[in-house]
Amino acid sequence: MENEAAGESSRVAMPPPNTGKLITILTIDGGGIRGIIPGVILAYLESQLQELDGENARIADYFDLIAGTSTGGLVTAMLAAPNKDKRPFYAAKDITPFYLEHSPKIFPQIGGPFSGLVNLTKMLNGPKYDGKYLHTLIKGLLGGTRLHETLTAVVIPTFDIKRLQPVIFSSYEAKSKPDLDAELADICISTAAAPTFLPAHTFKNKDAQNNEREFNLIDGGVAANNPTLIAIGEVTKQVVMKHEDLFPIKPMDYGRFLVISLGTGNAKNEEKYNAKMAAKWGLLSWLTHNNSTPIIDAFNQASADMVDYHNFVVFKALHSDDKYLRIQDDTLTGNLASVDVATKENLGGLVKVGEQLLEKPTSKINLDKGVYEPVENGGTNKEALRRFAKILSDERKFRYSNAGSRLI
Protein backbone atom coordinates (compact mmCIF):
# COMPACT_ATOMS: atom_id res chain seq x y z
CA MET A 1 0.00 0.00 0.00
CA GLU A 2 2.85 2.38 0.79
CA ASN A 3 4.31 1.97 -2.69
CA GLU A 4 0.94 2.54 -4.31
CA ALA A 5 0.34 5.67 -2.25
CA ALA A 6 3.77 7.04 -3.02
CA GLY A 7 3.29 6.26 -6.69
CA GLU A 8 0.00 8.10 -6.79
CA SER A 9 1.55 11.04 -4.94
CA SER A 10 3.98 11.47 -7.83
CA ARG A 11 1.08 13.09 -9.67
CA VAL A 12 1.41 16.03 -7.31
CA ALA A 13 4.29 18.51 -7.46
CA MET A 14 6.92 17.81 -4.81
CA PRO A 15 6.98 20.39 -2.00
CA PRO A 16 9.80 22.94 -2.46
CA PRO A 17 13.36 22.56 -1.11
CA ASN A 18 12.68 24.74 1.93
CA THR A 19 10.48 21.95 3.29
CA GLY A 20 13.22 19.34 2.98
CA LYS A 21 16.83 18.52 3.72
CA LEU A 22 18.27 18.65 0.18
CA ILE A 23 18.28 20.59 -3.06
CA THR A 24 18.16 17.98 -5.81
CA ILE A 25 19.70 18.62 -9.24
CA LEU A 26 19.98 16.52 -12.39
CA THR A 27 22.17 17.63 -15.31
CA ILE A 28 22.74 16.22 -18.80
CA ASP A 29 25.64 17.08 -21.13
CA GLY A 30 25.48 17.84 -24.83
CA GLY A 31 26.58 15.29 -27.42
CA GLY A 32 24.15 14.81 -30.31
CA ILE A 33 23.13 11.19 -30.86
CA ARG A 34 25.16 10.27 -27.79
CA GLY A 35 22.16 11.49 -25.80
CA ILE A 36 21.23 7.81 -25.99
CA ILE A 37 23.80 7.11 -23.25
CA PRO A 38 22.18 9.29 -20.53
CA GLY A 39 18.82 8.06 -21.86
CA VAL A 40 19.76 4.52 -20.81
CA ILE A 41 21.04 5.75 -17.44
CA LEU A 42 17.88 7.77 -16.77
CA ALA A 43 15.66 4.81 -17.63
CA TYR A 44 17.45 2.77 -14.97
CA LEU A 45 17.21 5.55 -12.36
CA GLU A 46 13.50 5.97 -13.02
CA SER A 47 12.95 2.21 -12.76
CA GLN A 48 14.53 2.28 -9.30
CA LEU A 49 12.29 5.16 -8.24
CA GLN A 50 9.31 3.19 -9.50
CA GLU A 51 10.34 0.15 -7.45
CA LEU A 52 10.30 2.38 -4.38
CA ASP A 53 7.27 4.57 -5.12
CA GLY A 54 5.12 2.92 -7.77
CA GLU A 55 4.91 2.84 -11.55
CA ASN A 56 3.69 6.45 -11.85
CA ALA A 57 6.97 7.84 -10.51
CA ARG A 58 8.81 10.07 -12.97
CA ILE A 59 12.22 11.76 -12.91
CA ALA A 60 10.69 15.24 -12.69
CA ASP A 61 8.90 14.28 -9.47
CA TYR A 62 12.21 14.06 -7.59
CA PHE A 63 14.43 16.85 -8.87
CA ASP A 64 14.12 20.52 -7.96
CA LEU A 65 16.06 21.43 -11.09
CA ILE A 66 16.92 19.64 -14.33
CA ALA A 67 19.56 21.24 -16.56
CA GLY A 68 20.65 20.20 -20.02
CA THR A 69 22.83 21.47 -22.85
CA SER A 70 22.27 20.74 -26.53
CA THR A 71 20.93 17.17 -26.76
CA GLY A 72 20.74 17.29 -22.96
CA GLY A 73 18.46 20.30 -23.28
CA LEU A 74 16.07 18.27 -25.41
CA VAL A 75 16.12 15.43 -22.87
CA THR A 76 15.45 17.99 -20.12
CA ALA A 77 12.38 19.26 -21.96
CA MET A 78 11.13 15.73 -22.59
CA LEU A 79 11.37 14.94 -18.86
CA ALA A 80 9.89 18.21 -17.59
CA ALA A 81 7.36 19.43 -20.18
CA PRO A 82 3.74 18.74 -19.21
CA ASN A 83 1.29 16.66 -21.21
CA LYS A 84 -2.46 17.33 -21.19
CA ASP A 85 -2.71 15.64 -17.78
CA LYS A 86 0.03 17.85 -16.32
CA ARG A 87 2.41 14.94 -16.10
CA PRO A 88 5.83 14.60 -17.77
CA PHE A 89 5.55 14.31 -21.54
CA TYR A 90 7.98 11.40 -21.65
CA ALA A 91 8.91 8.66 -19.22
CA ALA A 92 12.66 8.09 -19.05
CA LYS A 93 12.28 4.67 -20.70
CA ASP A 94 10.94 6.40 -23.83
CA ILE A 95 14.00 8.60 -24.41
CA THR A 96 16.20 5.95 -26.04
CA PRO A 97 13.45 4.75 -28.43
CA PHE A 98 12.90 8.42 -29.36
CA TYR A 99 16.56 8.76 -30.37
CA LEU A 100 16.58 5.45 -32.23
CA GLU A 101 13.53 6.49 -34.25
CA HIS A 102 14.37 10.09 -35.07
CA SER A 103 18.19 10.37 -35.18
CA PRO A 104 18.52 8.92 -38.72
CA LYS A 105 16.11 11.59 -39.98
CA ILE A 106 17.75 14.43 -38.06
CA PHE A 107 21.20 13.36 -39.28
CA PRO A 108 20.61 11.64 -42.65
CA GLN A 109 23.69 9.70 -43.68
CA ILE A 110 25.37 10.04 -47.07
CA GLY A 111 26.79 6.77 -48.31
CA GLY A 112 29.23 5.90 -51.05
CA PRO A 113 32.93 6.46 -51.72
CA PHE A 114 32.55 10.24 -52.02
CA SER A 115 30.59 10.78 -48.79
CA GLY A 116 33.55 12.51 -47.09
CA LEU A 117 33.95 14.96 -49.95
CA VAL A 118 30.21 15.66 -50.07
CA ASN A 119 30.11 16.36 -46.33
CA LEU A 120 33.15 18.62 -46.53
CA THR A 121 31.61 20.58 -49.42
CA LYS A 122 28.39 20.99 -47.44
CA MET A 123 30.24 22.20 -44.34
CA LEU A 124 32.18 24.74 -46.43
CA ASN A 125 28.93 26.19 -47.72
CA GLY A 126 26.75 25.95 -44.64
CA PRO A 127 25.83 23.58 -41.81
CA LYS A 128 26.15 19.86 -42.48
CA TYR A 129 22.40 19.37 -41.85
CA ASP A 130 19.53 21.77 -42.59
CA GLY A 131 17.74 21.07 -39.30
CA LYS A 132 14.28 21.08 -40.88
CA TYR A 133 13.26 17.67 -39.57
CA LEU A 134 14.60 18.48 -36.08
CA HIS A 135 12.76 21.80 -35.97
CA THR A 136 9.46 20.27 -37.09
CA LEU A 137 9.87 17.39 -34.65
CA ILE A 138 10.59 19.59 -31.63
CA LYS A 139 7.80 22.06 -32.39
CA GLY A 140 5.37 19.19 -32.87
CA LEU A 141 6.54 17.60 -29.63
CA LEU A 142 6.48 20.67 -27.40
CA GLY A 143 3.86 22.80 -29.14
CA GLY A 144 3.52 26.24 -27.58
CA THR A 145 4.67 25.17 -24.09
CA ARG A 146 6.68 27.95 -22.46
CA LEU A 147 9.55 27.86 -20.03
CA HIS A 148 7.44 28.74 -16.97
CA GLU A 149 5.13 25.77 -17.58
CA THR A 150 7.64 22.99 -16.88
CA LEU A 151 6.71 20.61 -14.08
CA THR A 152 9.97 21.27 -12.26
CA ALA A 153 12.52 24.03 -12.71
CA VAL A 154 14.79 23.71 -15.74
CA VAL A 155 17.95 25.46 -16.91
CA ILE A 156 19.04 25.31 -20.55
CA PRO A 157 22.11 27.28 -21.72
CA THR A 158 22.52 28.76 -25.19
CA PHE A 159 24.91 31.26 -26.75
CA ASP A 160 23.92 34.46 -28.56
CA ILE A 161 26.20 34.72 -31.58
CA LYS A 162 25.19 38.34 -32.20
CA ARG A 163 25.94 39.58 -28.69
CA LEU A 164 28.72 37.02 -28.12
CA GLN A 165 27.42 36.09 -24.70
CA PRO A 166 25.68 33.12 -23.05
CA VAL A 167 21.91 33.23 -22.65
CA ILE A 168 20.69 31.00 -19.83
CA PHE A 169 17.03 30.05 -19.98
CA SER A 170 15.98 29.41 -16.39
CA SER A 171 12.52 28.65 -15.03
CA TYR A 172 13.44 30.71 -11.98
CA GLU A 173 13.89 33.79 -14.18
CA ALA A 174 10.81 33.29 -16.36
CA LYS A 175 8.47 35.22 -14.08
CA SER A 176 10.70 38.22 -13.41
CA LYS A 177 12.13 38.36 -16.97
CA PRO A 178 9.27 37.65 -19.42
CA ASP A 179 11.61 38.04 -22.40
CA LEU A 180 13.29 34.81 -21.28
CA ASP A 181 9.95 33.00 -20.95
CA ALA A 182 10.26 31.66 -24.48
CA GLU A 183 8.69 28.59 -26.01
CA LEU A 184 10.54 25.44 -25.01
CA ALA A 185 10.69 24.45 -28.68
CA ASP A 186 12.69 27.57 -29.59
CA ILE A 187 14.99 27.04 -26.60
CA CYS A 188 15.67 23.39 -27.52
CA ILE A 189 16.27 24.17 -31.19
CA SER A 190 18.71 26.88 -30.12
CA THR A 191 20.71 24.89 -27.59
CA ALA A 192 21.10 22.06 -30.14
CA ALA A 193 22.36 24.33 -32.95
CA ALA A 194 25.92 23.00 -32.94
CA PRO A 195 28.23 25.08 -35.17
CA THR A 196 29.05 23.34 -38.49
CA PHE A 197 26.32 20.73 -37.86
CA LEU A 198 23.02 22.60 -37.51
CA PRO A 199 21.92 26.15 -38.36
CA ALA A 200 21.78 28.93 -35.79
CA HIS A 201 18.27 29.77 -34.63
CA THR A 202 16.64 33.17 -34.30
CA PHE A 203 13.34 34.12 -32.71
CA LYS A 204 11.72 37.02 -30.86
CA ASN A 205 10.03 37.24 -27.50
CA LYS A 206 8.43 40.15 -25.62
CA ASP A 207 9.44 41.65 -22.28
CA ALA A 208 7.20 43.09 -19.54
CA GLN A 209 6.83 46.36 -21.48
CA ASN A 210 5.78 44.47 -24.61
CA ASN A 211 9.08 45.26 -26.31
CA GLU A 212 10.47 42.60 -28.59
CA ARG A 213 13.81 41.01 -27.85
CA GLU A 214 15.55 39.21 -30.66
CA PHE A 215 17.63 36.11 -29.95
CA ASN A 216 20.37 34.84 -32.30
CA LEU A 217 21.37 31.56 -30.71
CA ILE A 218 23.68 28.60 -31.16
CA ASP A 219 24.59 25.48 -29.20
CA GLY A 220 24.73 25.88 -25.44
CA GLY A 221 27.91 23.79 -25.47
CA VAL A 222 29.77 26.95 -26.45
CA ALA A 223 28.97 28.20 -22.95
CA ALA A 224 28.72 24.98 -20.95
CA ASN A 225 28.62 21.51 -22.45
CA ASN A 226 28.37 20.22 -18.89
CA PRO A 227 25.68 22.46 -17.34
CA THR A 228 26.17 21.35 -13.73
CA LEU A 229 27.97 24.48 -12.55
CA ILE A 230 25.36 26.70 -14.19
CA ALA A 231 22.62 24.72 -12.45
CA ILE A 232 24.25 25.04 -9.03
CA GLY A 233 24.96 28.72 -9.68
CA GLU A 234 21.36 29.38 -10.67
CA VAL A 235 20.00 27.80 -7.50
CA THR A 236 22.56 29.67 -5.38
CA LYS A 237 21.52 32.94 -7.00
CA GLN A 238 17.88 32.25 -6.16
CA VAL A 239 18.80 31.43 -2.58
CA VAL A 240 20.57 34.80 -2.30
CA MET A 241 17.51 36.51 -3.82
CA LYS A 242 15.30 34.70 -1.28
CA HIS A 243 13.16 32.86 -3.80
CA GLU A 244 9.98 31.66 -2.12
CA ASP A 245 10.81 27.98 -2.74
CA LEU A 246 14.30 28.32 -1.26
CA PHE A 247 14.02 30.84 1.60
CA PRO A 248 15.25 30.59 4.39
CA ILE A 249 18.01 28.29 3.08
CA LYS A 250 21.39 29.94 3.71
CA PRO A 251 23.37 31.11 0.63
CA MET A 252 26.50 29.12 1.51
CA ASP A 253 24.69 25.93 2.53
CA TYR A 254 26.23 23.90 -0.30
CA GLY A 255 26.08 20.75 1.79
CA ARG A 256 22.39 20.52 0.91
CA PHE A 257 23.04 19.92 -2.78
CA LEU A 258 22.49 16.46 -4.24
CA VAL A 259 23.69 16.32 -7.84
CA ILE A 260 23.55 13.64 -10.51
CA SER A 261 25.55 14.72 -13.57
CA LEU A 262 25.29 12.61 -16.73
CA GLY A 263 27.85 12.76 -19.52
CA THR A 264 27.33 11.61 -23.09
CA GLY A 265 30.68 9.89 -23.53
CA ASN A 266 33.84 10.90 -25.35
CA ALA A 267 36.89 9.40 -27.08
CA LYS A 268 39.64 10.57 -24.75
CA ASN A 269 41.26 7.16 -24.41
CA GLU A 270 41.39 6.79 -28.17
CA GLU A 271 43.85 9.72 -28.31
CA LYS A 272 42.97 10.33 -31.95
CA TYR A 273 44.70 13.74 -32.07
CA ASN A 274 48.23 14.82 -31.17
CA ALA A 275 50.35 17.96 -31.36
CA LYS A 276 52.31 16.77 -34.40
CA MET A 277 49.04 16.39 -36.32
CA ALA A 278 47.48 19.60 -35.01
CA ALA A 279 50.60 21.63 -35.79
CA LYS A 280 49.92 21.04 -39.48
CA TRP A 281 46.19 21.75 -39.40
CA GLY A 282 44.70 24.74 -41.10
CA LEU A 283 41.11 25.96 -40.78
CA LEU A 284 39.58 23.02 -42.63
CA SER A 285 41.35 20.36 -40.58
CA TRP A 286 40.31 22.00 -37.31
CA LEU A 287 36.72 21.88 -38.59
CA THR A 288 36.75 18.35 -39.95
CA HIS A 289 39.27 15.57 -39.39
CA ASN A 290 38.63 11.83 -39.47
CA ASN A 291 34.86 12.25 -39.18
CA SER A 292 35.26 14.60 -36.20
CA THR A 293 35.39 18.33 -35.50
CA PRO A 294 38.55 18.82 -33.39
CA ILE A 295 37.95 22.45 -32.44
CA ILE A 296 34.48 21.65 -31.07
CA ASP A 297 35.69 18.47 -29.37
CA ALA A 298 38.41 20.46 -27.61
CA PHE A 299 36.18 23.29 -26.38
CA ASN A 300 33.34 21.03 -25.27
CA GLN A 301 35.55 18.54 -23.46
CA ALA A 302 37.65 21.20 -21.75
CA SER A 303 34.62 22.94 -20.26
CA ALA A 304 32.94 19.67 -19.26
CA ASP A 305 36.00 18.32 -17.46
CA MET A 306 36.73 21.57 -15.63
CA VAL A 307 33.16 21.65 -14.34
CA ASP A 308 33.40 18.06 -13.15
CA TYR A 309 36.77 18.69 -11.50
CA HIS A 310 35.47 21.80 -9.72
CA ASN A 311 32.37 20.01 -8.45
CA PHE A 312 34.25 16.96 -7.24
CA VAL A 313 36.71 19.13 -5.29
CA VAL A 314 33.98 21.32 -3.76
CA PHE A 315 31.77 18.39 -2.73
CA LYS A 316 34.82 16.61 -1.29
CA ALA A 317 35.82 19.71 0.69
CA LEU A 318 32.31 19.93 2.11
CA HIS A 319 32.35 16.25 3.05
CA SER A 320 29.40 15.80 0.70
CA ASP A 321 31.04 13.75 -2.04
CA ASP A 322 28.47 11.02 -1.36
CA LYS A 323 25.87 13.43 -2.78
CA TYR A 324 27.67 14.09 -6.08
CA LEU A 325 27.55 11.48 -8.84
CA ARG A 326 29.15 12.02 -12.24
CA ILE A 327 28.55 9.22 -14.76
CA GLN A 328 30.74 9.50 -17.84
CA ASP A 329 32.51 7.16 -20.28
CA ASP A 330 35.73 8.34 -21.93
CA THR A 331 36.49 5.07 -23.72
CA LEU A 332 34.40 5.57 -26.86
CA THR A 333 36.07 4.83 -30.19
CA GLY A 334 35.37 5.51 -33.85
CA ASN A 335 31.79 6.31 -34.80
CA LEU A 336 30.58 5.81 -31.24
CA ALA A 337 32.29 9.08 -30.35
CA SER A 338 30.56 11.02 -33.15
CA VAL A 339 27.60 13.32 -32.61
CA ASP A 340 25.87 12.50 -35.88
CA VAL A 341 26.71 9.06 -37.33
CA ALA A 342 23.12 7.90 -37.01
CA THR A 343 23.38 4.46 -38.59
CA LYS A 344 21.37 1.60 -37.09
CA GLU A 345 24.58 -0.13 -36.10
CA ASN A 346 26.05 2.92 -34.37
CA LEU A 347 22.85 3.83 -32.53
CA GLY A 348 22.58 0.26 -31.28
CA GLY A 349 26.20 0.47 -30.17
CA LEU A 350 25.44 3.56 -28.09
CA VAL A 351 22.64 1.70 -26.32
CA LYS A 352 25.17 -1.00 -25.38
CA VAL A 353 27.60 1.69 -24.18
CA GLY A 354 24.92 3.00 -21.81
CA GLU A 355 24.10 -0.50 -20.56
CA GLN A 356 27.79 -1.32 -20.00
CA LEU A 357 28.33 2.04 -18.27
CA LEU A 358 25.80 1.04 -15.62
CA GLU A 359 28.03 -1.91 -14.72
CA LYS A 360 31.27 0.12 -14.60
CA PRO A 361 32.73 1.53 -11.35
CA THR A 362 31.80 5.06 -10.35
CA SER A 363 34.61 7.36 -11.46
CA LYS A 364 36.11 10.82 -11.16
CA ILE A 365 38.23 12.91 -13.52
CA ASN A 366 42.00 12.90 -13.02
CA LEU A 367 43.12 16.15 -14.64
CA ASP A 368 46.79 15.14 -14.48
CA LYS A 369 46.17 12.09 -16.65
CA GLY A 370 43.13 13.48 -18.46
CA VAL A 371 40.99 10.39 -17.86
CA TYR A 372 38.31 9.10 -15.51
CA GLU A 373 39.46 6.77 -12.75
CA PRO A 374 37.42 4.52 -10.45
CA VAL A 375 36.39 5.98 -7.09
CA GLU A 376 37.71 3.89 -4.22
CA ASN A 377 34.90 1.84 -2.65
CA GLY A 378 32.44 3.65 -4.93
CA GLY A 379 30.76 0.53 -6.29
CA THR A 380 29.24 0.46 -9.75
CA ASN A 381 27.19 3.21 -11.36
CA LYS A 382 24.15 0.96 -11.08
CA GLU A 383 24.69 0.57 -7.34
CA ALA A 384 25.21 4.31 -6.95
CA LEU A 385 21.98 5.06 -8.81
CA ARG A 386 20.08 2.67 -6.55
CA ARG A 387 21.49 4.48 -3.54
CA PHE A 388 20.61 7.88 -4.97
CA ALA A 389 17.10 6.67 -5.82
CA LYS A 390 16.56 5.77 -2.16
CA ILE A 391 17.83 9.19 -1.05
CA LEU A 392 15.54 10.93 -3.55
CA SER A 393 12.55 8.87 -2.50
CA ASP A 394 13.17 9.52 1.19
CA GLU A 395 13.62 13.24 0.54
CA ARG A 396 10.31 13.42 -1.31
CA LYS A 397 8.46 11.64 1.48
CA PHE A 398 10.14 13.79 4.12
CA ARG A 399 9.02 16.96 2.36
CA TYR A 400 5.41 15.78 2.24
CA SER A 401 5.54 14.95 5.93
CA ASN A 402 7.30 18.19 6.86
CA ALA A 403 4.97 20.29 4.75
CA GLY A 404 1.97 18.73 6.39
CA SER A 405 0.81 17.37 3.03
CA ARG A 406 -1.03 14.08 2.71
CA LEU A 407 -0.02 11.39 0.21
CA ILE A 408 -2.91 10.83 -2.15
Strand tally is 10
Distance between the termini: 11 Å
Stretches with pLDDT under 50, minimum 5 residues: 1-11
Number of helices: 15
- H-E string: HEHEHHHHEEHHEEHHEHHHEHEEH
| Spatial extent as radius of gyration | 21 Å
Main sheet? 8 strands, mixed
Which structural class is indicated by helix and strand composition?
alpha/beta
The shape, in one word, is globular
Q: Kindly report the average pLDDT value.
A: 90
Relative helix content: 40-55%
Strand portion, in percent?
Answer: 5-15%
Function: Lipolytic acyl hydrolase (LAH).
InterPro entries: Acyl_Trfase/lysoPLipase (IPR016035), PNPLA_dom (IPR002641)
Organism: Datura stramonium
EC number: 3.1.1.-
Molecular structure report:
- The protein has 408 residues and is of the alpha/beta class.
- The chain is built from 15 helices and ten strands.
- It has helices spanning 2-9, 36-53, 71-80, 95-106, 115-125, 132-142, 171-174, 184-191, 221-224, 228-240, 275-278, 283-287, 294-317, 344-359, 381-402; strands at residues 23-28, 65-68, 153-160, 165-170, 201-206, 212-218, 257-262, 324-327, 363-366, 371-374.
- The strands form two sheets. Strands 1, 2, 3, 4, 5, 6, 7 and 8 form an eight-stranded mixed sheet that branches. Strands 9-10 form a two-stranded antiparallel sheet.
- A hairpin with a 4-residue loop joins β9 (363-366) and β10 (371-374).
- α2 (36-53) crosses α14.
- It is globular.
- Mean pLDDT is 90; it is low at 1-11.
